[in-house]
Amino acid sequence: MVVEDYDNYINPFSTDDIDIYSGKSYSVLLTTSQDPSQNYYIFVGVRGRKPNTTYALTMLNTAPASKLPSSPPPVTPRWEDFERSKNFSKKIFLAMGSPSPPKKYKKWLILLNTQNLIDKHGDQQRLSSDSGNALPRFS
Q1: Is 90 exceeded by the pLDDT of residue 46?
Q2: Average pLDDT estimate for 12-41
Q3: Among candidate residues 31, 23, 42, the one with its CA nearest the CA of residue 3
Q4: Segment (H or E) for 86
Q5: SS3 of 126, please?
Q6: CA-to-CA dists, residue 59 to 6, 65, 68, angstroms
Q7: What is the per-residue pLDDT for 97?
């Protein structure tokens, strides 16, 4: 269950996987309500860009003795499955009572992010920048 998005409490929601982009952090609660006598895999893979790194695999040990989980390790969703990433983001809602951002600001923070081509139609193309919006150009 996801309960926090980058130090902000959110309305908790359940999910089988999480998209975590550069600079993001989530707080989660893991439950082993299926079978507490079994162990489970935790699998980390690259999403949002072509994977050039190896996957990470570890085990959540809940059984009294260490043994391999009975099911095979999960498979990372396809790296360019942007619809899946957008659907995950649409589940995140700030919890009631959380402080709002300030109405006035004094400084701008411009971030350099990676970009992925989502689609291209003729001369137009749409990019995703770590799931953020395009920043204005400065001259």
Answers
A1: no
A2: 83
A3: 31
A4: helix 82-89
A5: strand
A6: 25, 12, 8
A7: 86
